[in-house]
Amino acid sequence: MPHHTSSPVRARRSEAPTSPLFALGGETLVAAPRGTAAGPRRGGRAAPPRLGPYARLFAAPGTVAFTLAGLLARLPMGMFGISAIVMIAGTRGSYALAGAVTATGMAVSAVVAPLIARLVDRYGQARVAVPAVSLSAAGSLALVLCVRSGAPDWTLFAAEAASVTAPNIGGMARARWAHLYRGPAPEAEAARHTANSLEQALDELCFMLGPVLATALCVSLFPEAGTLAATALLLVGTLLFAAQRRTEPPVEPRGDDTRVAALSRIPGLPPLLLAFLATGAVFGALEVVTVAYADGLGHKAAAGAVLALQALGSGAAGLVFGTLRFSGRTESVRRRLAVCVGAMAVLMTLPLLASTTGNLVVLAPALLVAGMATAPAMVTGMTLVQRLTPPDRLNEGMTLAVTALLGGIAAGSAAGGWAAEHLGGSWGYAVPPTAAALAAGVALAMAVGRRSPGTASG
């Protein structure tokens, strides 16, 4: 449950309670009582005391720069898939081929992404991100050339497989926030919670704007325009992100136990990844079912706008969620995850009920409200990943969560598509609440289960 912002700090017994200020000196976050002479080391600057949580978050030097660069690099997340489908289907005349190529990319990414993240943890963000994104850009350009020149179909699969080496920018941004505001202090915990909420809202923004931008480019210019624009944004954004060395976390020293141990052996992480998998199925099913539902009503062109409302509700709720303060213990994070995912399961019944009316005007606000539970669930899940994952493998842990999420999206898309095609009507909307209920069951089992001996309490 949310609690008050901080414990009172008294400079003298006769003074009223005040809350400590943050000051960033070098790589150290300093908490100092207000009104004292203490200040940030080496020229750092203190966060203004009366600003909101997001303004205080960006008081640390360099945070605005890496956030904007990361946003630029992440915008292609919502562009590559639909751009490839439009490009391949438009030039080769086969949606089956386009779907197979993009599915191959997702399958290869599920294997490659954790390996790239492990290299980031071992050698640092800049040293790995630059060559990884360069190889990814080369693969995307090769895909465009193969499509444009009429190369054999197998070359499309090879090029797509080479293009999935881009690093997980969202995970690296969250790792920077975790490093800047590290430690068990309540103020640091609150700053990390606000940062995770901000990053989730940025993800929602990218998935909301990316498909619209990609479709507009492919339709108004030429079929390859979306892929080319996404490649340019990814390359430039990642290079700018990697150039922000001031906020890059140092490579954590590795112990012998974490050098060879699989993250799947960490207590609590496997069921959490299962919860991410089921949550991804919610997103994948919701997208496919909504497109099919709108098409059945003769309003397929409106499907994108209706889905954007779900992302809008999620992003707005995520920003509000970031202003709340919670207890920092790991057990309370587990309980909060169960509550958030349970709320998502309940709210996902709203689109199911609204779809029975056969009216998009009724469905749209239902999706808006349903989306308000997804960001808090994702933010809390990522917070728990950061708690359970060793510091020297933080990027790998968050990338595994994203990989599980993408796997769930693929499974949910398949299940939602089957339900929409074979059952028809509003039955497809039964898939998202079912998947959400599965995620809620896993989260609840984690919350009520016996506390693992090796789990830190935060």
UniProtKB/TrEMBL annotation:
Keyword set includes Lyase: no
UniProt-listed InterPro entries: MFS (IPR011701), MFS_trans_sf (IPR036259)
SUPFAM superfamilies the UniProt entry points to: MFS general substrate transporter (SSF103473)
Membrane-spanning residues: 94-116, 128-147, 228-244, 272-294, 300-324, 336-354, 360-385, 397-420, 426-448
This protein's UniProt keywords: Membrane, Transmembrane, Transmembrane helix
Matches recorded under Pfam families: MFS_1 (PF07690)
Coiled-coil positions: none
Protein name: MFS transporter
Lineage, top ranks: Bacteria, Bacillati, Actinomycetota, Actinomycetes, Kitasatosporales
